[in-house]
Amino acid sequence: MFIDSATAVQVNLKPKMVSMGTQTFTPLTSPDPTDGEEDLSVISDASWVPGDQMSEEDEEVLCEEPSPTCDPHQNGIDKLIVCQEELMALFAICPACCEKSDSRIVQQEGTFVKIEQVCACGYQRFWQNQPILHRNMPTCNLLLSGAIHFSGCLATQTLRMMTLFGLQCISTSTFFRHQRRYTIPVIIQAWQNEQAKNFSDLKAMDGGLVVAGDCR
């Protein structure tokens, strides 16, 4: 095969351009409590506003069944996971006559559960798995919101994991309500208290405080 020297051969040496994009991650803001995430919790929490007046039904419950005094150090007490079937078995026998009795769950809100036990002999009692804070707010519901917030975990993922595990927990709207009304104000108050303490310690130093800069 022979190639004529007069024949011109054109070669395209232009490099091929490939467009490559970069992906950036923008942190998501906390969803509004009104977003449709209520289905992540098995039990829907009733909305609660500190400034609202208590309903007549709530007042009747408080009058009939006085809530025990809440220990301010409930966060340091161990919490145990108990299966519902094993829990209800504890109320199958009447402690008064030692006969079989009827028991049922009368209230369940987030991590809170209240059980009523009734026997034919006339014995009746109510049992709840945790103390109640002011305005009928379960203690562990608030403690769970604080633990999620203070540990830096994502609320939606944490609560979804608990739901998949079958553990009764609060809803995402309840978490963001607790975050807005309790945990964030507590963080701000703790920071202000620590700042005031540091200022007080600096003022009490002998000779005052000498501040030096690097001319910037």
Question: TL;DR?
Answer:
This protein has five helices and three strands; from the N terminus they run H-H-E-E-E-H-H-H.
Overview of the structural elements:
The protein is α+β, with helices and mostly antiparallel strands and 216 residues long. The chain has a domain at 55-197. The protein is built from 5 helices and 3 strands, in the order ααβββααα. α3 (139-151) crosses α5 (172-203). The longest helix is centred in the last third of the chain and has 32 residues, at 172-203.
Strand order of the largest sheet: 1-2-3
Provide the β-strand percentage band. Answer: 5-15%
| Number of helical segments with 4 or more residues | 5
Tell me the span between the first and last alpha carbons.
77 Å
Radius of gyration: 31 Å
Low-confidence blocks of residues: 18-69
